[in-house]
């Protein structure tokens, strides 16, 4: 195989390998159902967050999320605004004076915009990890996993989940971290 062929196949190979759920089949289904229920019912309003972009730049602001809706109001590094609902998002950068509209059908962020959220069918749970007190769940598009990956990291006391980090890996393998405070 040539190097070009290996590079082209790498995302598919990674997606195919990322199916190692912790525990038996029933444990994975139970964990998936818990995460799905959390995402369907949670209402996060003006939660402080920090974000690390792929180039290492750090910013932050306030996050609002409920099923089908996400709003990030950035105060650092400067005033910006990302509002996503359903299948579209609008990003406004006050410093640059720009507004960017984007579809979420091929963007990993779109995995969290379902209303109601379904972690089956078009969305696949590719991995569940459960170190003590934590549940980490990775999601991708079933039909095209190379479009990106979203990993949700929850504090888990056995009864309730509490989201504290979102990792988004895009199709170019750039990673963005959002940590809730």
How would you portray this structure in words?
This protein has 181 residues and is of the alpha+beta class. It has one domain: outer membrane lipoprotein receptor (LolB), chain A (Clam), CATH 2.50.20.10. Helices cover 18% and strands 46% of the residues. It has 2 helices and 11 strands, in the order ααβββββββββββ. The chain has helices at 3-17, 25-41; strands spanning 44-52, 58-66, 69-76, 80-85, 88-93, 98-103, 123-129, 134-141, 148-156, 161-170, 175-180. The protein has an 11-stranded antiparallel sheet. A hairpin with a 6-residue loop joins β8 (134-141) and β9. The model is unreliable at 1-25 (pLDDT under 50).
Major beta sheet, strand line-up? 6-5-4-3-2-1-11-10-9-8-7
CATH topology call: outer membrane lipoprotein receptor (LolB), chain A
Individual helix count = 2
Task: Provide the helix percentage.
Answer: 10-25%
Number of separate structural domains: 1
Catalogue the unreliable spans: 1-25
Biggest β-sheet: count, sense, barrel? 11 strands, antiparallel
CATH architectural arrangement: Clam
Structural class by sheet pairing and helices: alpha+beta
Q: Write the CATH homologous superfamily.
A: Lipoprotein localisation LolA/LolB/LppX
Radius of gyration: 17 Å
- Specify the overall morphology: globular
């Amino acid at each position: 195989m040539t190097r070009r062929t290996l590079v082209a196949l790498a995302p598919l190979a990674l997606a195919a390998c990322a199916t190692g759920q912790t525990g038996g089949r029933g444990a994975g289904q139970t964990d998936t159902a818990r995460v799905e229920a959390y995402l369907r019912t949670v209402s996060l309003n003006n939660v402080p967050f920090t974000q690390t972009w792929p180039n290492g730049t750090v910013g932050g602001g306030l996050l609002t999320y409920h099923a089908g809706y996400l709003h990030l109001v950035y105060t650092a590094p400067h005033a910006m605004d990302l509002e996503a609902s359903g299948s579209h998002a609008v990003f406004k950068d006050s410093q640059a004076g720009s507004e960017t509209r984007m579809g979420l059908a091929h963007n990993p962020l779109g995995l969290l915009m379902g209303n109601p959220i379904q972690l089956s069918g078009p969305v696949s749970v590719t991995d569940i990890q459960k170190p003590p007190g934590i549940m980490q769940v990775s999601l991708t598009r079933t039909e095209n996993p190379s479009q990106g990956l979203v990993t949700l990291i929850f504090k888990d006391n056995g009864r309730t989940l509490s989201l504290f980090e979102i990792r988004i890996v895009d199709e170019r393998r750039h990673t963005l971290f959002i940590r809730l405070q």
